[in-house]
Amino acid sequence: MAKKTWREKFENGKPPTLITMDKAAMGMQPGDKMLISSPEEIDQYIRTIPFGKTVTMVQMRDDLATRHGAVVCCPLTAGIFTRIVAECSLESGEDGNDATPFWRIVDPKSPLAKKLSCGPEWISKKRDEEAAA
């Protein structure tokens, strides 16, 4: 079986879902809501980050959770979906206005940056280019 492309993983994403916790976990109590976002929602969020600005993954998760009335956005799936968005953008060779500017949310010092096919140095370079513009 052929390995899925990043674009296929992006397009096969499910819509955002709220899960009601049945037991305490990650600082949440039974009955609290946790958001499982989607690659599409994370892509849309990243595209709203202004040129030259950065947002932390924690801030994005907080914003998305608030938007959906949840206590928290799942950090594991948010990281996975952010990687799908980034790799999809890189895989497509997107440049200019069509690219999802994932470098505005992926910290070059983060474990995620080290996993991306572009590497942390590329992310740092993109951030530097925007800061100098």
Helix content: 40-55%
What is the gyration radius calculated from CA atoms?
15 Å
Q: Between the first and last Cα atoms, what is the distance in angstroms?
A: 45 Å
Number of strands: 3
Q: Can you tell me the residue ranges where pLDDT is under 50 for at least 5 consecutive residues?
A: none
What would CATH call the architecture? Orthogonal Bundle
CATH class: Mainly Alpha
Strand content: 5-15%
Tell me, briefly, the overall form: globular
Instruction: Give me the secondary-structure category.
Output: mainly alpha
Q: What is the typical, i.e. mean, pLDDT?
A: 92
How does this model look, in words?
- Helices cover 47% and strands 8% of the residues.
- It has one domain (6-132): Arc Repressor Mutant, subunit A, CATH 1.10.10.
- The radius of gyration is 15 Å and the shape is globular.
- The mean pLDDT is 92.
- The protein is mainly alpha-helical.
